[in-house]
Amino acid sequence: MKKILLLPVLLFAMASCTAQDKTSFGKEALESKMTALDGKQIAFKDILAKYKGKTVVIDVWASWCPDCIKGMPKVHDLQKQFPDAVYLFLSYDRVDEKWKAGIEKYGANGENYHVGTSMKEGAFAADIKLDWIPRYMVVDKTGKIALFKAIEADDAKLIETLKNLK
């Protein structure tokens, strides 16, 4: 009986470690098309390629998300503390006009792309195991994921990761 109970615990522990230790995006996520402010489609891999050699902070957000809006001042503080990083805002707004208005209204200063209309659908959301926004990730200068998940822009792990990548 003890062996049967232990198996689910071990499987859960292994899955949790795998999610936290993920250091690269999956093929489907890299191929995911996102929309630039000019309306052109671009694959996520091509977005990342533009910033190879730089530290990238990814902020997955939406203008309708109260926690995203409350977190924006913390993002602004992070931008002041780490001005050399690229800030990549990936939105799950439902309507392009609201996404664009939200960028202006909440000061999402950086590179902005529209991922899709539902954070529960699509290869990108599935690959990063998106279950909450805002969601912060850090990609190092070589394109590897240095921090897979933070939900606060002032998270100690996020700040420590950025300090270590300077």
TrEMBL record:
Q: Which residues form the Thioredoxin domain?
A: 23-166
Q: Where in the cell is it found?
A: Cell envelope
GO MF assignments: oxidoreductase activity
Question: Which InterPro entries did the record assign?
Answer: Redoxin (IPR013740), Thioredoxin-like_sf (IPR036249), Thioredoxin_domain (IPR013766), Thioredoxin_ResA/DsbE_sf (IPR050553)
Q: Which UniProt keywords apply?
A: Cytochrome c-type biogenesis, Disulfide bond, Redox-active center, Signal
Q: Name one GO cellular component term.
A: cell envelope
Family matches, as PROSITE patterns: PROKAR_LIPOPROTEIN, THIOREDOXIN_2
Biological process terms from the Gene Ontology for this record are:
cytochrome complex assembly
Q: What is its main location?
A: other
Record bears the keyword Manganese? no
The stretch of residues making up the signal peptide is: 1-19
Pfam assignment, any one: Redoxin
What Gene3D superfamilies does UniProt report for this protein, alphabetically? Glutaredoxin (3.40.30.10)
Write the protein's name.
Answer: TlpA family protein disulfide reductase
| Native organism | Flavobacterium zepuense
